[in-house]
């Protein structure tokens, strides 16, 4: 006698989505800025801020909407990117509101412009628009590989965005830098969006040309030197970055574009020689422009010795005040609302907002913020490593590299490590263009990570293997 049993095939076990982990982290990312907001109000006015409940509920609703969109349309995305960006954005609004309470800045604004308008409510409005744009990107961009079709269109689009600020009547010269355009009373910084658009071109171009660029003609002093004709792309990007620096007086954007291209070129070809060549070209170009362009020369002078020209140059005074802010903060800081970084002046809530972190939160707060930024960069690099397609790998590493370079040039500038670039600290500084562009960057990284972490579909079962008869002797 025998026993016949039926066994069926088991499909692939579904990978965890980690969305509940993201929700828990988002709760902390919302609560921490609310406590910071309350701390500032108690420190400055001796009472809780009157709009604390509205701010807290509004920020929680925005974070909840972003989470629901990710849960529905990017189920397997990295669970850390959204909470960290939310935390940084929330703390940025608190820092801006803290500076809005400064009597010095209110008096300066009334003296210079005749009226003072608080920046924190406007920053919350930009945050809401940024979350909406973040949601639209995840809704529309179902697969990041679609962007590869627009490789050369994106190059043209990036060039248009870079040219707009120098067009007479459209571009605006703000304190020597021509990086803004004014449309209908609103100011937009196209360079913030150009870094994303040009990353599409770099990723698509290098994916196709990486084999040719990896070829070496000769070895010199331990380096593989590329062929002459292969130097064309890097020379073109180098020239474009110099043109941005010359015509727009924008050191930060030129360093960002050229640095991002060199990073992506190194990742695509694995040739150290490209890094060396890129560094030499960037140093050479920056030196020449720094000696000839007056706006850049002023910033280099302020970097070399800000206290030598402290009383004669506004740039030197700003850098000097910033360095003193970091120095007076010490290890633990003076406390929320107890610093004097508002002495920096009009740029205290934009270019120099990190100085407020250094003074009121001290070295501990500075390291905490840099750690949060570092985690975003690390998750972006991890996403690039996990991506299954070469375009996605290069695109993710390009966006992460651009984000890292922006953190370095801004933090280094306000700390006196490098010349001031005029760029804004992502998510912290006041300004709509920066908030919108960086939330789009986070959305694209989330889309790439969702594709990379999504489990491969199980193969279709064969009808013959659905049921197997196993005969066992009784």
Structural class by sheet pairing and helices: mainly alpha
Query: Low-confidence spans: pLDDT under 50, at least 5 residues?
Result: 1-13, 465-470
The helix tally amounts to: 16
Distance between the first and last residues' Cα: 5 Å
What is the number of strand segments? Answer: 7
| Widest sheet: strand ordering | 2-3-4
Question: What amount of the residues lies in strands?
Answer: 5-15%
The radius of gyration computed from the alpha-carbon positions, rounded to a whole number of angstroms, is: 25 Å
User: Given the C-alpha coordinates, what overall shape results?
Assistant: globular
Average pLDDT value?
83
Total domain modules? 1
GO cellular component, one term: cell division site
Keywords: Cell cycle, Cell division, Cell shape, Membrane, Transmembrane, Transmembrane helix
Protein name: Cell division protein FtsW
Membrane topology: Multi-pass membrane protein
């Amino acid at each position: 006698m025998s026993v016949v049993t039926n066994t069926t095939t088991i499909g692939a076990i579904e990978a965890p989505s980690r969305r509940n982990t993201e929700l828990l982290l988002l709760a902390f990312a919302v609560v921490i800025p609310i406590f910071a907001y309350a701390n500032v109000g108690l420190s400055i006015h001796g009472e809780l801020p009157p709009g604390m409940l509205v701010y807290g509920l509004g920020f929680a609703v925005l974070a909840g909407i972003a989470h629901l969109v990710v849960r529905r349309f990017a189920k397997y995305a990295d669970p850390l990117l959204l909470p960290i960006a939310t935390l940084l954005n929330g703390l940025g609004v608190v820092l801006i509101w803290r500076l809005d309470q400064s009597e010095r800045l209110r008096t300066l604004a009334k003296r210079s412009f005749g009226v003072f308008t608080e920046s924190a409510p406007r920053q919350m409005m930009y945050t809401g628009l940024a979350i909406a744009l973040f949601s639209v990107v995840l809704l529309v961009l179902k697969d990041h590989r679609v962007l590869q079709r627009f490789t050369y269109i994106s190059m043209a689009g990036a060039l248009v965005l870079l040219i707009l600020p120098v067009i007479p009547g459209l571009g605006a010269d703000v304190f020597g830098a021509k990086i803004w355009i004014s449309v209908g009373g609103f100011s937009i910084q196209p360079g913030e969006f150009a870094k994303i658009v040009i990353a599409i071109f770099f990723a698509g171009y290098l994916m196709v040309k990486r084999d040719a660029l990896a070829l070496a003609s000769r070895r010199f002093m331990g380096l593989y030197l590329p062929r002459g004709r292969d130097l064309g792309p890097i020379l073109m990007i180098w020239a474009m970055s110099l043109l941005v620096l010359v015509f727009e007086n924008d050191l930060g954007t030129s360093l960002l574009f050229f640095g991002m291209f060199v990073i992506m070129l190194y990742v695509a070809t694995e040739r150290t020689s490209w890094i060396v060549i890129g560094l030499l070209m960037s140093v050479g170009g920056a030196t020449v422009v720094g000696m000839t362009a007056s706006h850049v020369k002023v910033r280099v002078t302020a970097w070399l010795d800000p206290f030598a020209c402290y009383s004669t140059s506004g740039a030197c005074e700003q850098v000097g005040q910033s360095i003193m802010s970091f120095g007076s903060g010490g290890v633990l800081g003076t406390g929320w609302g107890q610093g004097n970084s508002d002495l920096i002046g009009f740029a205290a809530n934009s270019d120099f907002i990190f100085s407020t972190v250094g003074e009121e939160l001290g070295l501990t707060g500075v390291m905490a913020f840099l750690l949060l930024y570092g985690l975003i960069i690390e998750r972006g690099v991890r996403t690039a490593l996990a991506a299954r397609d070469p375009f996605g790998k290069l695109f993710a590493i390009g966006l992460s590299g651009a984000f890292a370079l922006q953190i370095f040039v801004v933090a280094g500038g306000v700390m006196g490590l490098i010349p001031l670039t005029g760029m804004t600290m992502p998510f912290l500084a006041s300004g709509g263009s920066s908030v919108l562009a960086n939330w789009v960057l986070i959305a694209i990284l989330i889309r790439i990570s969702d594709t990379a972490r999504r489990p491969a579909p199980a193969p279709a079962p064969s009808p013959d293997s659905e049921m197997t008869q196993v005969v066992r002797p009784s």
